[in-house]
Amino acid sequence: MSRRTLKLGAVLLGVGGPGQHNTWLDPEIPANASVDVNWYIARAKEAEAAKFDLVFIVDSQFITRNSPNHYLSRLEPLTLLSAIAVHTGNIGLVGTLTTSYNEPFNVARRLYSLDHISGGRAGWNVVTSGDAGTAGNYSRDEHFDYPTRYGRALEHVQVVRGLWDSYEADAFPRDKESGVFLDPEKQHALNHRGEYFSVVGPLNLERSPQGQPVIFQAGDSEEGRDLGASVGEVIFTHAANLAQAKAFRAELRERAAAKGRDPEGLLTLPGIQLVIADTDEEARSKEDARLGTKSFDRALKELGRPFGWHDFTRYDLDAPFPEIGDAGERSFRTQANSIKKLARDNGFTLRQVVQHLIDAARSPFVGSPETVADTIQHWFSEGGFDGINVTVNAPSEFALFTDRVLPILRERGVVRSEYESDTLRGNLGLPVPANRHTDARHPAPALAP
Amino acid sequence: MSRRTLKLGAVLLGVGGPGQHNTWLDPEIPANASVDVNWYIARAKEAEAAKFDLVFIVDSQFITRNSPNHYLSRLEPLTLLSAIAVHTGNIGLVGTLTTSYNEPFNVARRLYSLDHISGGRAGWNVVTSGDAGTAGNYSRDEHFDYPTRYGRALEHVQVVRGLWDSYEADAFPRDKESGVFLDPEKQHALNHRGEYFSVVGPLNLERSPQGQPVIFQAGDSEEGRDLGASVGEVIFTHAANLAQAKAFRAELRERAAAKGRDPEGLLTLPGIQLVIADTDEEARSKEDARLGTKSFDRALKELGRPFGWHDFTRYDLDAPFPEIGDAGERSFRTQANSIKKLARDNGFTLRQVVQHLIDAARSPFVGSPETVADTIQHWFSEGGFDGINVTVNAPSEFALFTDRVLPILRERGVVRSEYESDTLRGNLGLPVPANRHTDARHPAPALAP
Ligand SMILES: Cc1cc2nc3c(=O)[nH]c(=O)nc-3n(C[C@H](O)[C@H](O)[C@H](O)COP(=O)(O)O)c2cc1C
Ligand SMILES: Cc1cc2nc3c(=O)[nH]c(=O)nc-3n(C[C@H](O)[C@H](O)[C@H](O)COP(=O)(O)O)c2cc1C
């Protein structure tokens, strides 16, 4: 096994960082990039040329007029990734699909099709849908409560993984001489009957190059961390500072170990915002300018999102942060609670909360190429993360990372110079889960239940 | 408007015709073609070179060990079509998605994403899932009964079309000068509350090149024909002989007219099996040889499919066709009933029924290139169909049609020589439905409700 190296993900058209609802104003980014397949293919090729492990596509299924601009109109992640798959050859393709509003049979099939089409490069970012309003688009009056949402998520992933084991690797002799297409002993029904799903199987798709596409997971609550520790292989998260990043990674590894898993089979990749310029000073001014494009009014509106798009514009900005009951209870609860706590602990007004959130959007990864390389290497060696998910918007900004930061990290042996495998799982150095049905004959470590 | 010409569809790896469960034995077809994206892309390019209007991907979500071989393991249609989209430029891309086990919001979004990715070439084959066993893969004890199945289908399509109208064509000024991304007056929620679905909307994807991807429909029962007449723009069907084909087309056009639709907005494209050789005699021997590969045992097993995979091997072959109660009632009921009627009317034994079905699999489109061209032209001019959906398996067989039959039909003006439009809708000569929200300002003919 080769020396542990930093994993690299590219979040294409990531929205969420400061001023990123305004990325469409960037002269380098076509205003309609979020619906332009060629824009995505071009970025994926650049990431592949830089030997990135994966591209990552986030998602949501609910919008309001105040949603970040690129969210108002964007391509469905798996449809997009299939198009990218046939114009790339090595880079991993990770798509977000919610367990709350998709059937496990359909999810299993679509991701497995992508794994076949891409020759083993598919990954699934398992989410439960943070926007409570999503329920209204799926014939439900209300979003699931947290225990149900995450209970369904765990069972959903288990069903999907079970369906992926429907066929043993050698189930299809397809011997034209003897006329034998299938070895029926190697086709396995699932016969799952659980609390939330009943799925007989088998899947109508043979074992794929990865066998099991890689499970990514994003969710921050107690329930979310438990799900990640149970079935996640890569955790997508945020990281405000090194101490927090270390604590998060250590906690997830401990939780996984407590479930009988090898913690090396769980990688933490926070999404990070890079701001790179020739000098540290220039980089800081660049970030100031970028933060400056985020107007207070816009931030006030977006504050509503974790609270189920609660309308904060109707309150007095200089009165104490409003009592809004349990708004957000079925939305991004963890984020909503931490904002409430921030207001309470500091006695903040609404204006102070919004201003605090704008200021807190500063990235720890700002500076010259040397500085950024140093910071990344430091966090990595201190156990802050196993890799980074870099937000990719303007190509020239991404090139500052690939052309000026990566060579430094390669020189230092932090990042590998070539793809090591044909599959995403292989490049990430993750163990290959055995097929549960082949297991008995060829024992191999299974993932935790 | 140009003269009416014959429309051309290519059903890639179509299974269903005589002996086609054995297509994998063909030396020209890779044994794993059904999971090989490159095989599909190559066939789609050939069809595009021959100026076909569309490729067509059938589907099912339930298999047994007796399912046709290529069904045991195949790629999910939309994932596959997205990969084909970015390696072709003109040909339409029609995928089968069931209304019984997919959420309308997800269907709307995936097809609309394909329409954006392909520049306006997406079509949806609306089915309700014929295999009753599909229910078991979607947490249901039983498949929906016919009225529910088709009631859901109609409402599902209406919701999807409503979501496709979420944004008016000019809803996104995306003016970098003024900073205006969206014109909120042109974003419309759906607020649908129906018998089967409640969907608030709007869709998170702007108006696509076609505005409304083309609706294909396949289903033969009273309920199925009613659905086709209500929302179908192209009907995929079978055609055993000219009289039956004419009657079917005439009936569908009448039904559509009775619903206030222009019957010219509804095209009938039966799936046909071509058997072409230098002479009529050689073609007939070729068909004999092909039918010969269909063993009686295999046909006996496959007889079970319309009856919900009822096991017919347990009956005496030479006793009268067994009384099997309502097996098939929630499966392919129309087909099951017509087989029961055949047995009853003729007093057939089980053996005679199976033998009859094997014999009935003969195609009307067998002969030399001249003969096949004559037959197609005759059926077309007699009003038997508006186009044909040709099953594409071995490339050399397909080439006999494109290289030897098509030139004759072109010479006679039956088939056009060039694409006439950038979109599938345009090539099929179908009217462009107006956006319901723009309608008031710019009146235009709407589709029937
Ligand atoms: C880093 C990160 C990325 C996320 N990405 C998505 C996403 O793309 N789509 C989505 O629906 N939810 C996403 N989520 C939301 C989670 O699925 C979850 O619903 C939300 O975080 C609320 O749950 P929690 O309280 O467990 O965090 C993300 C969450 C985190 C922490
Ligand atoms: C020509 C034709 C093609 C069909 N293709 C499919 C298909 O690809 N997938 C599917 O699930 N059902 C398919 N169906 C089945 C229909 O969706 C329907 O469920 C089935 O025919 C039983 O309904 P009916 O009695 O209305 O025909 C097809 C039916 C016909 C007539």
From TrEMBL, chains A, B:
Binding-site positions, FMN: D59, T96, Y150, S221
SUPFAM superfamilies, alphabetized: Bacterial luciferase-like
Alphabetic keyword roster: Flavoprotein, FMN, Monooxygenase, Oxidoreductase
Enzyme Commission number(s): 1.14.-.-
Coiled coil start-end: none
Molecular functions (GO terms): monooxygenase activity; oxidoreductase activity, acting on paired donors, with incorporation or reduction of molecular oxygen
Luciferase-like domain sequence ranges: 40-386
ATP-binding found in the keyword field: no
NCBIfam families linked: FMN_nitrolo
This protein's name: NtaA/DmoA family FMN-dependent monooxygenase
Native organism: Amycolatopsis pithecellobii
